[in-house]
Each structure stands twice: as C-alpha cells, then as structure tokens.
C-alpha cells in the first residue's frame, strides 16, 4: 500500500438528496424532504470523521450515498481510487467491483444485518464470493484470518455458526470482518455500537480503532452519541435537518461549541457523574423534517438567539474560523466567536 | 453560559442521612426463574432493595441482567413462563405477590404504574389520547370521575408533563415521539399511584428529547413527592436522575447504595469496570477499559460469584462461594469477596 | 498515525479464471459435507419442535396412513388378494353376489324385504316371473363382505380397490398442485417485491385479477374446453392459486425481507440483483412457501372431489368419481342406507385435506416462533 497519509481520501461537495413525498399512484410529487441539502466535507487518509446528529438529520442518508446504496440527487462524491491513486467520481466508477472492494459499510443492527440462514463463513466470505476472489480454500483461509483479526479466537469454531448462535458483540465483530475482508480503504460505520451493551461497546470501539491503524482504514463514523464520537473520531461534523451546522476537530467542537444547536446537543448529553452541573439546554421542541424548506436558517424555528438576518438570508454557509473549525451561523460569522454573541446580535440588528 | 445552571436533584440521602424513612416499596429476596425447554433460566436471584417515599431508585445493568424482570415482577406482568420462586414485593405494607389476579389488576395503575420502553407506541390510534387516559381513570378511580373531573385532572397532568392541554382531544398520530412519551407519563400519573416504574423511558428518543423527558420526571418526583424506580442500561441517565441505585449483573444485585456514593467510589469490580468503560463528553479524554468476555448463560450460571469469570480481581473463594450483600458504608452494600482490591480511581485500560 | 501493511493477511488474486473454476470444484468436497451436516442439524431441531405439536403429529399420522393406503393398491394387486383383474380393477372390475328372492304378487305382501320381492319389481331382473317363482338377483351395490371389505359400488366394482387407487391420484394431484403453486408464487412474489415499481404493479394487478376469478366456475368452463386429467388439473390449480393469494402473501414476506439491512449489506458486498434474490430473498421466503404447499394440497384434494362429483374431469377413478357414481345412481337420496358408497370416499377427502392442513398449521408454528406455545 502506498503511503497516503494526509491525502484526501473522500471528498463530498454540495451533496443533496431529496425524497419525494408520495402523493399516490398517478400524481407527480411536488413536495420533497430535503434529507441531505448541500453537504460538503473532506476526509483525509487515516482520519476518521464523525457525522453526528439526531434521528432524521440526514447523517445515515449521507453515509448510504457514499457507499452507493442511495443515488444522490445532486452534488459530487469523489473517492480516491486504490489502483490509480486518483480521486474518482462515484457516479462514473468504471469498475463497480473495484468500488465495492474499496468502499465498505458496517451496519447498525448486528441482529438484522446478517442473513439468519447463512453461516458466519458465508457471511464473511460473501464479498469474496460475489466478486469471484480466490478459491474456496483461499476464501476459507482468508475468513479464518479475518475472524482472528477481529478477535474471534480461535476462529474455526465460529466458521459454521449461524448469527443467532452468537452474542451481539460477536455478531458485530463478524460484521466488521465482512466489511474488511476485501481490504477497503474507506468504511462507513453507521452507529456500529449503538445496539450493544456498554461493556461490549468499548471493546468494539477499540477494535475498530486498532484495525484502522493496522489496515489504514479511513472511517466515516455515523453516530448520535457525542460521547462515542469523542472516542472514535478525529473530527466531527454536526448535522441538523440535512445541513452541516458545525465541523471541526473533535475536542475543539466539544470543548468550545459554536452553533446553538451543537451547544444544546452537548448540554443534553447525560453525564456519568452525579456531581456534574449540566448547563441548561437552551432550545426547545424536537426535530421536524425539512419539507420544501424556506430560504432561511434551517435552525431558525428552535433558535433562541435568532435575529432578522437569520430570517431574511438563506441558510448560512459554513464560516471558517481559521482553525479548521467551521460553523454555519450568522452570529458566529460576525466576530468568529460565540462569546461575542450579544455584540453580534446588536450588530446584526443594527 | 448565562448563569442558569441546573441543580441536580437534592441528594441528602447519602451516607450522611440520619433520618431513614419507612420505605414505600420494598423488594425482599426476590427469586425469579424462566421455564424454558432447556431448563430453568435463573433471571433474578435473591434481589432485595428498598425505595423510601419520594425518592428515585435506579436499577442499571446490561441486557439480560434481570432488571426488566424485576420491574415486571413489581407490576406482576411477567411472562407466562416466569416462576417467582420466592421473595416479597411490599408496596406500602401490602405484599403484591400474595394478591389474587383481580386485586392486583385494581392496584396496577392505581398504586403502582409503569412507563415502559416504547410505551409511546402503545397508544391506540383510533381514540384520542384524552379518551384513553379517561379509560384508565374510569377503571381505577373510586368512585368513577365525572367528565369534568376527569378533564380537569387530565389538563392538570398535561400541564405537569409539559404538553399543551389543547392536545387532550387529539389523536396519537398528531403527537411527536417525545410528546407521546410525555402523555404516557401523564397517563401513568392519572390514578395517583404511589410508585412509578420507568423502564428505559427514554431509550428510543433523541438526546434533546430525552433530556426534556428526564427533566419532567425529575420535576414530578420533586413536586409531587413521587417515588420512582428507573430501569436503564445507561449509567449516565441513572447518574442524572436517581438518588439511589442498584447495579445488577446476571440476575444478581451486586452493588446498591446512594448514587452519589457509588459514582464517587464504585466498590464492586463490575461497577468499577462499567464506569471505567463509559465514555463521557466531559473531563479529559480517558482511555476506556474494555470489559472482556460475555455475560454468562443463566441456564447454567457460574458457581460462586456470577461475575468471577470476567473479574480482574478474582480470588479462589470467588469461584466456589457466592458472596452476599454486605454493608461496607452506611447504606452502601456490595456483594464481593475481594472489594478491597478495587482501585479508588477508574481503570484506564491497558495502554 | 502509522499505516502498516497488514501482516496477517494476503490480498487474494481477484478474478483469476482458473481460481473460479477451482472454487466450484472444491465446493463439492468438504464444504458440502459441512453444509449437509448443518442442514441435518437444523432439520432435527425443527423436527423436535414439530413433534411437540400434537395437531401436527395427528396430521402426519393421517398422511402416513393414507400413504400406506396408496401403497396398498399396487402391492395387493400384484401379490395380494386383489390380483383378479376382472373383479378388482377399480374401473372395469365386476363382481356381484347373487341373492335369491321369492316372488310375491304385490308389494303389500312382502313381509321380509331381504328375501322377498313383488312381481312387478322383479321384472327388472327376471322377465316374466310370477309369484311363487324364485328369482336370482345380482346385488349391486353390495354391502361389505369377505371378498369386498368395503362392499361394491352400484356398478359392482370393489370400493376398497377404488379407494386405494384414488389415494395415489390424490397424492399425485396434491404434489403437482403444491409444487406449481409454490414455484410460481415464490418467483412472482420475490421478483415483485424486489424490483417494485411497474414490475410489482403489473404482477400484483394480475394477482388481484386471478384472486378475484371464481376458481370453480373457471375450472368448469375449462373442463368444457379441454379434457382435464389429474396432472393438468394439478397444474391449473397450481397456477391459479400460485398467481393469486399465495403470490400476494409471499410477496409481502419478501418485502419484509427486502428492507432488512442484510440485503443492503449484500449489496455493499457487490452482490447483483440475481444474487440478492437467489441467495437472500428466496431462502428466507421458502419456509413460508412450504407452509403454503401444505395448504395447496388441501385445496387441490377438495377441488378435485368437487369437480369429479359433478363429473367434469376426465378421470377414470377418484374419490370424487366414487361420490359421483353414488350420486348419479341415486344412492344419495337413501341417506346412509348405502353408507359404504359415501363414507369411505367422503371421509378420505376430508381426512387427507385435514391431515395436510394440520401439518401446515404445525409448520406455521415451527416457522413463526411467535405462535409457538410456551
């Protein structure tokens, strides 16, 4: 493998996905849910980016577009090709099989993401089988190696077990083995630990980090849990109703959140410490859906600090504060910090 | 921050509490097995705890540890193959396990009610939420409430849980997920129960909505003096809302005490490891310690301490003899032979 | 972050044409053995579950008994007591015990109907008989006797042979109908669920249409157009029931599987649509398909009886024909006096249909753990 450290491995530009709202059989739909609306980010090799947000914010849809489970409505996805070492548009990948080898996904539900009628060997070897890689003996050897790699040791007794004979943690290890069996360079992990118990969750998280280092895998880690994202991701992007509202190095975003939504999200996270005094959550209500959204800030309805500009101007672009920490908020854009909020409000009202 | 800081619920029940109250709910030596084809699953083994009036108590543990079985036994709603082999559940002086079915049916909701996981999906879509709450009141109020009484009570409850009283005449599909769960809480309160059991009340909800619901529950406990039993797998949620907590592992209560004390210094190796492996958004980014192995098969639980196969501090006696709950500080009990070896600080894993 | 070359694993040579061939060859040996063992294990487990269900067991016992009955025909005809073609052929055999009757003048004088007949009636057999004569009358239908344990039918044919012979046809019919139904329904349901869109729409509207067709009148019309024999009837029932209700049920099952994450996972692995349908959707629909096989057998057996009863099928002998014979000769009017003409065939239809139905119900519980009684 050539060294790709620091090189951009995945580049997403202005990605959009609109879901039509069904109006019945013969009527053309005019209403759309803007599930993903102008999302752009880059992931560098060996880095893992966390996509964080509440349910319905578009994080999973973004992940599914990246692995071509979903067709984008607009925008571009470029992924570095392993063979040519060039950034290639996902839409015009020539070699679909090569794409599948390069880009893989780990699913949320270890119980539902495996065919109950197939054995562990079938499940892990499936990518090799459909791609016609290796002989049966080679495949078996490869599966055994992979199972050992993900900590199912000794691997042989697991080969011909069915998923229901495994515990949740073991299944998720099998799922990781399946995703890594073709040595992808980029893996989308969609809440891989959210269905697991705490004690098992940590070992899976550690395993994923370990493998990333060992195999040079880059993750897009989708999660609703900021605490998990903190441990898994070098950078995180917070999504709200199809938009990235804040993005930056994990500790930076969690330590000094800028967007009012990120701040609310952070203060709502339960903390395993009874003596911790949690800041009050400043926003109310729940997430709705972005159906034909108006040209205004997407967070307007729930934002306690909104000024006229937020209503009249379209959703703000990500504002670069210089430190790789981007925020999509008019208030922050005025002086680049949250502490100057009062001044910003005054200035924007003037 | 603008200075408004949340105060955690008053926690004067710690080790310094010198005025022990008579418990409203007491579980004594509860043993529950599930009969399956392969034999008996020892789901709850000798669990005892007491909940003082007006307090909140959390039961925390991994899936399959028996916490939900305990909750269902409190409501006498266990599955058909469950066998309560011993113990008492004393609610305000009455042993619920001795009541016949009809007596228990009348006590459910009226004396002890439950908000269970996914309860928000249990609304009947063809009736308005108000009608469904009224139905519960009609069964359990004595005498039955008049229409205006029922409405007044429902409005009061809706205000309490933070729903616009206008919503009484709306259908469940007009409520959002969080709203539905609030309405479930209102319904659980509709017959003025003595105890509410909340089994994973916020598990399916988004984090901001979860925070709102937990705030409502805290408010209900504070304002109405309600006694609440929380069941959760999420130790952070338990830290947030309970005064007392019990940690369950493989059907056994392994540690019980004031929440603040347990978090300040977990004494049982399992609690210590769970706390060590819980990620947090606060504090320095700690290396997390994984808990090796898997919970045991309760068809054939390990001999001695049920945690011994995974315990880093295992000694010989752990393999052969079962430890009993012992009080190590006032109000703080653990079941461990070798607890003195558990470090004061949390584990950092094997770096 | 340091990226190391993975040390424990080597990249496989992809798309080596020889490797592919080898793969297919090698799959024969050890892996197949393992799979057979797994299948056997799964079968044993399901069998144990099935055996717990008393209704299913009863159904199985019934089916086995009918199986023995069907086997009885070729065996007894070849080596047993039914060897005489002239007597025991279910269609052209003839045997009627002869009974002597005293002729009396008028019906009023008959004191013992088993030994006496009035002259008028006796004219049918003994032309010109007068009172005082003895008339020999062949008894058809004849009640059970040593040679004919279930008696003979109005044409003097052995009922037991007919019953045994018809059992074989019933099994054959049921099998053909079931296999065709399930084959059609599984393929239509899976394709419809998987592709959705216009494929789904057109297939399902067709299914609605077939579902709405009244099955019996359609078969009556078809029987007027063609000579329908049992295999053809089996295929027709199979197509009509497979395209109709069964396809719709199996489609909804396939639909619930299509949205499972493991389908996404297989797609991300690079699986083609054919691969997804063959390896993931159909194997998960099959258990339900087998269930419907059982119900189709029930349906086919009853339908055959109905159609034969009305004499609409081109069939030499079947349970329906047996009932038809009894009816067309007027023996249904007399209630249960000639019970051996009605009970054996009628009960056989009911019992075999019930047997398959019970097995189906029991299989339903094996397949659907939620229905399983604790």
Give an account of the 3D structure:
With 350 residues, chain A is α/β, with parallel strands linked by helices. Chain A has helices at residues 59-66, 96-102, 120-130, 136-149, 156-159, 168-180, 198-215, 226-232, 250-255, 260-268, 308-312, 330-335, 341-349; strands spanning 8-20, 32-44, 48-52, 74-80, 87-89, 103-106, 186-190, 218-223, 235-240, 243-249, 319-320, 326-327. Chain A has a domain at 8-239: P-loop containing nucleotide triphosphate hydrolases (Rossmann fold), CATH 3.40.50. Helix content of chain A is 33%, strand content 21%. In chain A, the strands form 2 sheets. Chain A has an 8-stranded mixed sheet with strand order 6-7-8-3-9-10-12-11, sandwiched between helices. In chain A, α3 (120-130) packs parallel to α6, α4 packs across α6 (168-180) and α6 packs parallel to α7. Chain B has an 8-stranded mixed sheet, sandwiched between helices. In chain B, strands 2-1-4-5 form a 4-stranded antiparallel sheet, covered by helices on one side. By secondary structure, chain C is mainly alpha-helical. Chain C folds into 2 domains: 51-77 and 157-371, Orthogonal Bundle (MetI-like fold); 98-138, no CATH class. Chain C has 14 helices and 3 strands. The radius of gyration of chain C is 29 Å and the shape is elongated. Chains in contact: A-B, A-C. The interface between A and B is large, with 45 and 49 residues.
CATH fold-level topology of the largest domain in chain C = MetI-like fold
Number of strands of chain A: 12
CATH topology tier name of the domain at 8-239 in chain A: Rossmann fold
CATH superfamily of the domain at 8-239 in chain A: P-loop containing nucleotide triphosphate hydrolases
Return residue spans of chain C where pLDDT drops below 50 for at least 5 consecutive residues.
1-28
Q: Summarize the amount of helix of chain A as a percent range.
A: 25-40%
Estimate the global geometry of chain A from the Cα principal axes: globular
Query: How far apart, in Å, are the first and last alpha carbons of chain A?
Result: 57 Å
Taking pLDDT < 50 over at least 5 consecutive residues as the criterion, the unreliable ranges of chain A are none
Q: How would you state the average pLDDT of chain C, rounded?
A: 82
Query: If you compute it from the alpha carbons, what radius of gyration of chain A comes out, rounded to the nearest whole angstrom?
Result: 22 Å
Overall CATH architecture of the largest domain in chain C = Orthogonal Bundle
Given the structure, what is the number of helices of chain C?
Answer: 14
């Amino acid at each position: 493998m050539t060294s790709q450290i620091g090189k951009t491995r995945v580049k997403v530009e202005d990605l959009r996905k609109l879901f039509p709202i069904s109006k019945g059989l013969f009527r053309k739909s005019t209403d759309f849910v803007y599930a993903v609306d102008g999302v752009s980010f880059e992931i560098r090799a060996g880095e893992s980016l966390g996509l964080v947000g509440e349910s319905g914010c578009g994080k999973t849809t973004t992940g599914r577009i990246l692995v071509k489970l979903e067709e984008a409505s607009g925008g571009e996805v470029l992924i570095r090709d392993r063979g040519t070492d060039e950034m290639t548009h996902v839409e015009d990948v020539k070699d679909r099989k090569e794409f599948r080898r390069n880009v893989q996904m780990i699913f949320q539900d270890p119980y539902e993401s495996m065919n109950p009628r197939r054995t562990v060997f079938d499940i892990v070897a499936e990518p090799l089988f459909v791609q016609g890689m290796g002989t049966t003996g080679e495949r078996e050897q490869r599966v055994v190696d992979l199972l050992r790699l993900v900590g199912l040791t000794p691997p042989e007794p697991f080969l011909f077990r069915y998923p229901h004979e495994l515990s949740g943690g073991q299944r998720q290890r099998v799922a990781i083995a399946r995703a890594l069996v073709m040595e992808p360079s980029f893996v989308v992990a969609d809440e891989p630990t959210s269905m697991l118990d705490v004690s098992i969750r940590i070992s899976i998280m550690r395993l994923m980090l370990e493998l990333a280092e060992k195999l040079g895998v880059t993750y897009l880690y989708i999660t609703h849990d900021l605490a998990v994202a903190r441990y898994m991701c070098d950078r995180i992007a917070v999504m709200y109703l199809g938009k990235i509202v804040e993005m930056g190095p994990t500790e930076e975003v969690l330590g000094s959140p800028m967007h009012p939504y990120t701040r609310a999200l952070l203060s709502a996270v339960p903390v395993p410490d009874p003596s911790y005094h949690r800041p009050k959550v400043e926003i109310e209500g729940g997430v709705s859906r972005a159906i034909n959204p108006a040209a205004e800030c997407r967070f307007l309805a729930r934002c306690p600090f909104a000024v006229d500009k937020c209503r009249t101007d379209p959703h703000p672009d990500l504002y670069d504060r210089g430190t790789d920490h981007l925020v999509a908020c008019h208030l922050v854009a005025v002086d680049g910090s949250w502490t100057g909020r009062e001044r910003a409000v005054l200035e924007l009202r003037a | 921050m603008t200075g408004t800081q949340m105060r955690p619920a008053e926690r004067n029940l710690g080790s310094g509490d010198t005025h022990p109250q008579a418990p409203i709910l007491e579980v004594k030596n509860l043993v529950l097995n599930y009969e399956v084809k392969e034999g008996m699953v020892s789901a709850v083994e000798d669990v005892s705890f007491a909940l003082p009036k007006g307090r909140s108590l959390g039961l925390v543990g991994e899936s399959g540890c028996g916490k939900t079985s305990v909750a269902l036994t409190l409501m006498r709603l266990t599955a058909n193959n469950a066998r309560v082999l011993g113990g008492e559940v004393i609610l305000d002086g009455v042993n619920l396990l001795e009541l016949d079915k009809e007596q228990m049916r009348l006590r459910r909701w009226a004396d002890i009610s439950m908000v269970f996981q996914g309860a928000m999906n249990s609304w009947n879509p063809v009736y308005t939420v108000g009608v469904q709450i009224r139905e519960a009141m009609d069964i359990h109020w004595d005498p039955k409430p008049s229409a205006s009484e029922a409405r007044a009570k429902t409005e009061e409850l809706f205000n309490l849980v933070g729903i616009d009283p206008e919503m009484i005449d709306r259908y469940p599909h007009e409520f959002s997920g969080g709203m539905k769960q609030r309405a479930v809480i209102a319904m659980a309160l509709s017959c003025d129960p003595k105890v509410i059991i909340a089994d994973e009340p916020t598990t399916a909800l988004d984090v901001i909505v979860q925070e709102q619901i937990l705030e409502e529950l805290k408010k209900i406990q504070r304002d109405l003096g309600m006694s609440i039993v929380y069941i959760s797998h999420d130790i952070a949620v338990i830290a947030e809302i309970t005064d007392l907590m019990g940690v369950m592992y493989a059907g056994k209560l392994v540690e019980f005490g004031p929440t603040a004390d347990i978090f300040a210094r977990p004494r049982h190796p399992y609690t210590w490891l769970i706390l060590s492996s819980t990620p947090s958004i606060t504090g320095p980014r700690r290396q997390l310690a994984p808990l090796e192995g898997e919970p045991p098969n309760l068809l054939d639980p390990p001999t001695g301490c049920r945690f011994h196969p995974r315990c880093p501090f295992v000694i010989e006696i752990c393999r052969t003899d079962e430890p009993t709950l012992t009080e190590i500080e006032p109000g703080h009990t653990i079941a461990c032979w070798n607890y003195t070896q558990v470090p004061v600080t949390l584990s950092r894993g094997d770096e | 972050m340091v990226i190391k070359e993975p040390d424990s694993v080597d990249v496989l040579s992809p798309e080596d044409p020889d490797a592919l061939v080898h793969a297919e060859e090698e799959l024969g040996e050890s892996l197949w053995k393992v799979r057979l063992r797994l299948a056997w294990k799964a079968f044993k487990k399901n069998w144990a579950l099935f055996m717990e269900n008393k209704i299913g067991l009863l159904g199985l016992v019934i089916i086995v008994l009918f199986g023995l009955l069907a086997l009885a025909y070729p065996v007894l005809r070849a080596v047993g007591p039914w060897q005489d073609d002239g007597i025991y052929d279910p269609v052209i055999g003839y045997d009627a015990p002869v009974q002597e009757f005293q002729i009396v003048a008028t019906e009023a004088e008959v004191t013992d109907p088993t030994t006496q007949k009035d002259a008028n009636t006796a004219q049918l057999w003994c032309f010109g008989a007068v009172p005082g004569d003895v008339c020999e009358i062949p008894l058809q239908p004849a009640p059970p006797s040593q040679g004919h344990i279930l008696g003979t039918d109005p044409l003097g044919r052995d009922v037991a042979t007919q019953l045994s012979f018809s059992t074989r046809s019933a099994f054959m019919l049921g099998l053909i109908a079931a296999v065709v139904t399930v084959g059609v329904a599984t393929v239509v349901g899976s394709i419809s669920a998987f592709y959705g869109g216009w494929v789904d729409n057109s297939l399902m509207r067709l299914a609605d249409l077939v579902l709405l067709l009244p099955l019996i009148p359609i078969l009556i019309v078809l029987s007027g157009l063609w000579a329908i024999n049992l295999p053809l009837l089996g295929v027709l029932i199979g197509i009509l029931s497979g395209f109709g209700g069964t396809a719709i049920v199996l489609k909804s099952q396939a639909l619930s599987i299509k949205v499972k994450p493991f389908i996404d996972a297989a797609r991300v692995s690079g699986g083609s649509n054919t691969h997804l349908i063959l390896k993931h959707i159909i194997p998960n629909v099959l258990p339900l398909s087998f269930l419907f096989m059982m119900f189709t057998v029930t349906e086919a057996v009853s339908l055959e009886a109905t159609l034969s009863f009305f004499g609409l099928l081109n069939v030499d002998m079947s349970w329906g024909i047996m009932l038809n014979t009894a009816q067309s000769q007027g023996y249904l009017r007399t209630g249960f006096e000639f019970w051996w003409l009605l009970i054996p065939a009628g009960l056989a239809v009911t019992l075999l249909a019930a047997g398959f139905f019970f097995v189906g119900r029991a299989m339903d519980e094996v397949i659907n753990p939620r229905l399983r009684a604790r």
